[in-house]
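Incident log, support desk, overnight shift.

02:14 A customer reports that sequence design results differ from what the structure should imply. Their input is reproduced verbatim below. On-call engineer (initials T.W.) acknowledged and began investigating.
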């Protein structure tokens, strides 16, 4: 009986020991993915800020500028692109809406971001765009990969329509979570005017005809929870200018928008809570279950060997049977 039990325990030990790496290196990369129908929104604020008054074409200080970002998963488009791409794809229809202190629109830029549901790498397909302009993204945007590494990544900048390195600057603690801190600086660059302008009658075409161009620079900062790859906080020191032409007084330059943009505290709290719960699920697949199964396999193997050894050991107190005496023949 002991030998049969030891063989059963040995079989379970092999099973759990084999399951440990399979769960981490085979199951996890296939199970961990962004759902195609995910929806999230975020409110950021610059308090105070400098904003252009298009009536006088002069910059003025305002108490607050609000930026509302929405990311809406387009499940229909995901399913359509997956048929030709041959992999799990997520399509995010994003909108960045900037409003002044009176609630009126300052700018509004839509995006369609198409990426691999598992790795967050861009997937190039018809419809990929920023503000109606077709783009071919490189690098990540909005989210880092699962199990983010301590290294630089290429991060796509929607204003310039290009990717640039975002640098890992160290590990920090944010709201009780260990996070990786990243920074990206975009130098002054000439960028396209938004298709939707804040003043009726003014279009990108009329601004360009006047010889005026839009320039942009930013310092972008993210606090990223490395297990999920989700930013739990983000800030930007954002600056925009209109330069040259007949629209700018004296043909020089004027600030269109300048401010230190930060996530609103209630959205930070909600994001930290959501990421904390998701972190537990990812750790279950990458750490807790694999190491638990490995430990269980080792314990079962040890128990199996102990039972096998006991089964082979003679029982205590057992005596040898008496041997018959030989009778010598005369």
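02:41 Re-run completed on a clean worker. Output:
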């Amino acid at each position: 009986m002991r030998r049969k039990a030891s063989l059963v325990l040995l079989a379970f030990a092999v099973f759990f020991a084999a399951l440990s790496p399979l769960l981490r290196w085979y199951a996890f990369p296939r199970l961990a993915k962004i759902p195609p129908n995910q929806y999230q929104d975020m409110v950021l604020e610059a308090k105070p800020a400098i904003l252009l008054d298009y009536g006088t074409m002069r910059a003025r200080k305002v108490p607050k500028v609000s930026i509302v970002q929405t990311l809406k998963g387009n499940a229909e488009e995901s399913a359509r692109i997956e048929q030709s791409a041959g992999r799990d794809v997520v399509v995010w229809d994003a909108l960045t809406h900037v409003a002044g202190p009176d609630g009126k629109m300052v700018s509004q830029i839509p995006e369609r971001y198409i990426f691999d549901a598992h790795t967050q790498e861009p997937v190039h397909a018809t419809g990929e765009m920023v503000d109606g302009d077709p783009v071919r993204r490189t690098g990540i945007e909005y989210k880092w990969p699962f199990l983010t590494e301590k290294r630089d990544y290429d991060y796509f900048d929607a204003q310039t329509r290009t990717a640039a390195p975002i640098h890992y600057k160290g590990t920090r603690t944010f709201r009780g979570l260990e996070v990786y801190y990243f920074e990206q600086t975009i130098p002054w660059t000439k960028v396209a005017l938004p298709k939707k302008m804040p003043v009726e009658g003014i279009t990108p075409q009329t601004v360009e005809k006047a010889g005026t161009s839009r320039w942009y620079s930013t310092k972008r900062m993210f606090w990223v929870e490395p297990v999920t790859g989700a930013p739990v906080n983000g800030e930007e020191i954002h600056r925009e200018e209109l330069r040259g032409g007949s629209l700018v007084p004296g043909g020089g330059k004027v600030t269109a928008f300048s401010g230190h943009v930060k996530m609103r505290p209630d959205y930070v709290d909600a994001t930290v809570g959501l990421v904390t719960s998701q972190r537990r699920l990812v750790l279950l697949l990458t750490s807790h279950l694999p190491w638990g199964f490995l430990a269980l396999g080792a314990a079962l193997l040890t128990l199996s060997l102990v039972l096998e050894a006991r089964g082979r050991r003679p029982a205590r107190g057992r005596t040898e049977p008496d041997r018959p005496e030989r009778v010598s023949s005369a």
